[in-house]
Amino acid sequence: MAHNPRYLRRLLLIAAAAAFIYIQVRLFSTQSSQDAGRVVHAEADQPDLPVAAVVIMACNRPDYLQRTVESILKYQKAVASKFPLFISQDGTNGEVKNKALSYAQITFMQHVDLEPVHTESPGENIAYYKIANHYKRALDELFIKHNFGRVIILEDDMEIAPDFFDYFEAAAKLLDTDKSIMAVSSWNDNGQKQFVYDPKALYRSDFFPGLGWMLTKSTWMELSPKWPKAYWDDWVRLKEVHGGRQFIRPEVCRTYNFGEHGSSMGQFFDQYLKPIKLNNAHIDWNSEDLSYLTEDKFLIKFGKDVANATPVRGSDDLLKAHNLDVDVRIQYNDQSDFERVARQFGVFEEWKDGVPRAAYKGVVVFRYESSRRRIYLVGPDSLRQLGV
């Protein structure tokens, strides 16, 4: 049988078939590996997840809303995938809803609560209760339903700076890695033209600025269950709420609040809001090294700056500061003393839960007459807290 021609042909056919099957298996395996490589590569080429959703909180001011949206779209179009836009309306104002729905690139959310508002004290403005409720509903929807990792909150009376989105994209990395930072703001309470100079300067602050700010989902999940019925921004400023965490703020504002008419009835508008300088300088924030803002580094850097400033003592602080061509520091003894000194210069006098607006370790810093010079208003315990 070994020499049977049929048997030999059969063996040759079996061998050829086995070789063909082996080659096909190898080809399939190679092709699968290549396809897998292409799949991995394709996934790597997918656009990154959004940096943050941007929500505009609106109610009953269609003209304000239009001005705000047009300011945002001017700079958002180039980064639309990184910063998806939402408008959240509180109430049923038809003009606001129609205006919001007219923007195809913006997702509209509406919060309608017809339940009567019960204030905790007689005569309180119910608007503050409605606003707090609206914030909670909107942020719950964005963080929980839509599952965004970060959200930037704007109001319907704000214009933004050209580098607004770059600023928040760079700051997002810092917010994710430094858990001592609770939120990042685009606002400086003492950002009036006469008090600012450097568009690149950023600071840590113990005071929550609000007015254009970003927080993470993990922080919201902590805040949401205990969110207050009213006055949400002052609530965030309580030490028991922020728990020693701080906020990043710019020297030169990245938002401008034009809302002279609203729930606060134009409070402080002419003195504090109208003169705010909105940044117009181009800053490539993603090329900036922001590591100096981490907790340990900023404490050392800021402490050295305060220590190197020339002490000024006496009742006429403004005159003495004017006569010196250097950074100066002026110590205040308590809240009333701070208010006296702040009034001389024209910066915010207000405190919340023992912290002056824009303060870090009790120190409020601002520029003197739009110059490079800094004025430091230093609390009685500030130098010890700064380690100097």
UniProtKB/TrEMBL annotation:
Gene3D superfamilies: N-Acetylglucosaminyltransferase I, Domain 2, Spore Coat Polysaccharide Biosynthesis Protein SpsA, Chain A
GO cellular component, one term: Golgi membrane
Places the protein is found: Golgi apparatus membrane
Residues annotated as transmembrane: 7-25
Highest taxon of source: Eukaryota
Co-factor binding comment: The cofactor is mostly bound to the substrate.
Gene Ontology molecular function: any one: manganese ion binding
Catalytic activity: N(4)-(alpha-D-Man-(1->3)-[alpha-D-Man-(1->3)-[alpha-D-Man-(1->6)]-alpha-D-Man-(1->6)]-beta-D-Man-(1->4)-beta-D-GlcNAc-(1->4)-beta-D-GlcNAc)-L-asparaginyl-[protein] (N-glucan mannose isomer 5A1,2) + UDP-N-acetyl-alpha-D-glucosamine = N(4)-{beta-D-GlcNAc-(1->2)-alpha-D-Man-(1->3)-[alpha-D-Man-(1->3)-[alpha-D-Man-(1->6)]-alpha-D-Man-(1->6)]-beta-D-Man-(1->4)-beta-D-GlcNAc-(1->4)-beta-D-GlcNAc}-L-asparaginyl-[protein] + UDP + H(+)
Top-tier EC class: transferase
Function: Initiates complex N-linked carbohydrate formation. Essential for the conversion of high-mannose to hybrid and complex N-glycans.
Name the record gives this protein: Alpha-1,3-mannosyl-glycoprotein 2-beta-N-acetylglucosaminyltransferase
